[in-house]
UniProtKB/TrEMBL annotation, chain A:
GO cellular component: plasma membrane
InterPro entries: MetI-like, MetI-like_sf
Localization: Cell membrane
TM ranges: 12-31, 95-119, 131-157, 177-195, 231-262, 282-303
SUPFAM superfamilies xref list: MetI-like
Classification via Gene3D superfamilies: MetI-like
Top-level lineage group: Bacteria
Keyword annotations of the record: Cell membrane, Membrane, Transmembrane, Transmembrane helix, Transport
Family: Belongs to the binding-protein-dependent transport system permease family.
Protein known as: Peptide ABC transporter permease
Membrane topology reported for the UniProt record: Multi-pass membrane protein
Automatic annotation (TrEMBL), chain B:
Stated family: Belongs to the bacterial solute-binding protein 5 family.
Bilayer-crossing regions: none
Subcellular location: Periplasm
Top-level taxon of the source organism: Bacteria
Matches recorded under CDD domains: PBP2_NikA_DppA_OppA_like_17
GO MF term list: peptide transmembrane transporter activity
Entry's Gene Ontology BP terms: peptide transport
UniProt name for this protein: Diguanylate cyclase
Lineage, opening ranks: Bacteria, Pseudomonadati, Pseudomonadota, Alphaproteobacteria, Rhodospirillales
InterPro entries: Peptide/Ni-bd (IPR030678), SBP_5 (IPR039424), SBP_5_dom (IPR000914), TAT_signal (IPR006311)
Amino acid sequence: MTRYALGKAIEMVAAMVAVSFVVFLILEANVDGVAVKVLGQFSTPDQRQLWLRENGYFDPFFLRYLRWLWHFATGQWGESTHYREAILNLLPERLAATGLLALCTLAVMVPLSLILGVLAGVREGSPIDRVVTLFSVVTISVPEFASAVFLSALFVFSLGWLPGASTMTSGFSWRELVLPVMVLALYSTGYLARITRASMAEVMASPYIRTALMKGASPARIVFRHALRNALIAPVTVIMLQVPWLLSGVIVVEVFFAYKGFGTLLYEASLNSDVYVIEDCAMVSVVVVVSTQLASDLIYAWLNPRIEFGRKAGAGTR
Amino acid sequence: MFKLRTNSGRALHPAVPALADQLAKGEIGRRDFLRTAAWLGVSAASAQAFAAAFGGALMAPGRAEAAEVPKKGGSLRFTCQIQEMKDPALVSWIEASNLYRNSLEFLTLVDADNVTHPYLALSWDPSEDLKTWRFKLRQDVKWSNGDAFNADDVVFNIKRWIQPTSKSSNRTAFAAVSDVEKTGEHEVTLHLSRPVLSIPEMLYAYTCPILHRKFEEQGADWPKNPIGTGPYSLAEYNVGQRATFKRREGYWGEPPYLDEIRYIDMGADVTSHVAALAAGQVDVLYRVTIAELDLVKRLPNVQLLTGHAAQTLCLRMQVDQKPFDDKRVRQAILLAADNQKMLDLAYRGMGVVAEDHHVAPFQPEYFKLPPLKRDVAKAKQLLADAGYKDGLDVTLTVGNTQGRWEQDTAQILQQNCAEAGVRIKLNVMPATEYWNIWNKAPFSVTYWAHRPLAVMTLDLAYRKGAEWNETHFDDPTFEAALDKALGIIDPKARSQAMEAVERSLQDAAIMVQPYWADEFTAVSAKVKDYRIHPAHYFKMDKVWLA
């Protein structure tokens, strides 16, 4: 276990270093651009040169990169050139907002899709199965920007039930969360239900379930006691893959509803070439991706004790 | 007979009687009369009364008007981009100016009818040759930090604009101002190197708010130290997020109705702004683009405000960059362009077709030139003469700073030019990125905001060495013609003098300037007395909530 955790930690650091290098290379190769961003377009060439010198921009690239890594590691994240605010003040608030959105989405999506998937998978070809399959196909094929427009047209413009923007300017509001959560959940519920259904159907056809059936076990007992735990392995992978998606893939939904989260921060930072914010957001994303992977490995192990830490090749579940 | 008076109580400028005579004879319109009289220091009330004698009052379109008695109180929510506004003299976004317009005031005020009124300046008296302007300032104005407002404040600001190192567009706009002098505790005098009639109107440009005389000493960062003379004070400010202004006690003028104005940044997508308005989450949208027009028209409890404005797109070429340094190439592009089609398809015909010289038919000094004729064969011939027999590849940069219609316009030009063999590649970039390169790309689409007078834009954009001269146009004959027009008081003579100005711009073929775009905005039905302003200058002190 310790060896495993250590290995994972090394993996995480390696991924962060790789990502950071690429991001740094892309964003900070053009040093003049950085100076213009920081000092503003009305700064004079002399001021820019002076600033670049003072901030060590004339040092060799690799040295600059190492210095930047050190600053990141020690929490000296600098100031956003667009928002003119310390990134360490800006980022936690935005992360929390997106985290809340992600949590709500998961809270709707996970139970709903597991129930739908299990109901459909238990008896393949049943009317419930057909309905769930149709639902899945429809929701998977409608992209978020389309469902966002459709749901806004319905709930904001036609019925007038829900607020159209989720800026939360008058303080926190659950009502403003409904539409973004609905769009995100709709998109991923169908997909997850489909995976659960396939996984459940496969398990239901396996010999040990047949044995249990022949032993006369009740259907409920078969589903909950025997099938579900094995059938959940695939959906858990999908759920875990949704977490990083919910952090950065929600850009479309956050921008559409003007929700001030991590996605809009990254989007606006990119639009405004806010170099330092993009760099830090990228690093935060890596941390989230790697930690969810770690979490999913741990949940696997709980669901399927045959998986041994650190011996991925032999375990046969990947 | 109604008597015309000046605000200062001094004698009328010698040109005023002739102006009144022209109005009486019907040679000039009431609007032209009111505007010109206002520049010359005539009081608006007396000019209005005088003009009314020649038929009715002047009304402007696009007003969210109320016949009821205004109600005090309430918090109004306004959605627009929250821009950086560290130094108000340097901003290049009108949105930013709408924020500080609540706290900072100007020497003059230009209303939605384009008539100039006294503001921090009580009156002005131009000399007969229009080269010396004496401004009398209000004496009852206090800064929010308790200091008294006086001539030192004004001298500090104007000196700052016109100094050679100034990066403000004001340096170009006020290039004729050679000196500013304090001629009394509450009086300043401007000395000009050449006559300029529109000085009072130019002082309401969005980069001209009067800052406290210690602005630079105190760090030159207005939001950090938001001292102002206006009715509201800045209470909260986060770029890209929100800004709040609260009513301030001790304002010199009539107190405003609203307790608070909250500006909310909802990103650049106007559709989500409309959704927020529909759901009652905001009360005023900064603007609605042509794309959302139909949606807004269908919304209940929402008022759509529209008006003509001299706002336009300049698909301009830099005359010192290849291949545009060859005039024949530029002429070919202009000859291939179909301005009417760009208006009809990209802006759904909601505007007025333009003639590539940046002077609008509804601006007072406009002179009508013969209509433009599209001639693809001639365009091809010119290209061949310039050595591009097999056509030419160029890149056109588009920032969509005001919305998708910029790109739509560029795409129609792309199709027009393809017929003549000019293959245009579009380089579409985010709006915020665009403003960093807007005057650097050899061929790009720039949105130009409304100015009440065409000469103001021409002065800013087409003089040699001007800060905003994005075409790098350099033509002494043009400048001489412009100088001449700037000094003429008589509206009719001024318009005639503009013929040479318009012609030299059109003949130089530096831009396709296809049409004048109408402006639209939407406000909630409970917002009263909010008026659309052709320049998007929104002053909020008369606005109230029902």
